[in-house]
Amino acid sequence: MGIRIKTGDLVKVIAGQDKGKTGKVTKVLPAKNLVFVEGLGVRERHMRPSMYRQGGKKEIQVGIEASKVAVVVDEKAGTTSRIGYSKDKDGKTIRVARQANNKEIK
Q1: Cα separation of 69 and 80, whole Å?
Q2: What's the count of helices (H) and strands (E) in the chain, helices before strands?
Q3: Are the C-beta atoms of 60 and 42 separated by less than 8 Å?
């Protein structure tokens, strides 16, 4: 089915080095199953000097596996939920939060 997380969603990391931290999704790569979250996944890359640039350390952002993040449903309480799809009365497909009794996600 692919990744159910979209750009702009508020997510919480549920596993790994940044467990418990929240942030907004800036980019999604469904082919690699990666999610880029602002402020998280920042690593240092050592760059070799060349004729055109000076060597040293450069900060890059790496993606987080999509299975390690969950969408935040209630920001105050910090509750997360899995995402599902259902049809509304007009026949449009909408995203719903399964742990919040199929509440629609904006």
Answers
A1: 9
A2: 0, 11
A3: yes
| Full-model pTM | 0.82
78 touches 22 (CB < 8 A): yes
pLDDT digits (tens, 9 = 90+) for 52-80: 999 999 999 999 999 999 999 988 888 89
Output phi, psi for 33, to 5 deg.
60, 40
Q: What's the one-letter identity of residue 1? A: M
Give the type of residue at 51. M
Contact 56, 88 (CB under 8 A): no
Token output for 95? 């995203």
Q: What does the alpha-carbon distance between residue 78 and residue 2 come to, in Å, rounded to a whole number?
A: 25
Spell out where 1-106 has E strands.
10-13, 22-29, 34-37, 42-47, 56-61, 64-65, 69-74, 79-81, 83-87, 93-97, 103-104
